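Lab notebook page, bench 4
Experiment: in silico fold of construct C2
Operator: M.H.
Input chain length: 189 residues
Purpose: comparison with the prior construct
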Amino acid sequence: MKLIVGLGNPGKEYENTRHNIGFMFLDRYCASKGFTIDKKKFNGLYTKQNIDGVDVLFLKPQSFMNLSGEVVLAFVHYFKIAIEDILIISDDLDLFFGNFKLKKKGSSGGHNGLKNIEHYLQTNQYKRLKIGISNNKAIDTKDYVLGKFSKEELETIDQLSKGINQILNDFLTEDFDSLMSKYNSKNEQ
């Protein structure tokens, strides 16, 4: 079974904020497949689906970004998911807005949600799809990541959705090294 986790913060006030881009792309993927993430367990919203013969859990932790690890770990234990079958979708300040990068493992890069997941899983060997939100140095980082997307940025997210959906489809059936080769080079500025 695969586990795809979109990171974000729960609540109306965090909708369409930069830190919630993981939630946004997970919701868009699920909508494209005709289902929603509507079950509750272990302080997470989730759904279990079979896509092209692969069982997949889609998860949005509801514990706030910096505490995502405890929720992820509860799902990993309960559903007996192997670390190599996890993909975390998160925002990344170091990537240009509209860019993305697949990574097989690595440091949290200062991202508190990833840091907390690493702490609870006791490894940094999980896969991730990092989505660029750029970094406006003129704004305090906390205020920036919790800031809302502009209309133009939301249009870019709409355009990016089809490509992200294809990456998530391919994650279910393709080798991750092939996936990184296929998508990472197309995306550099």
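Observations: The chain has six helices and seven strands. The beta strands are 2-6, 39-41, 44-51, 54-61, 86-92, 100-103, 127-132.
Next step: discuss at group meeting.
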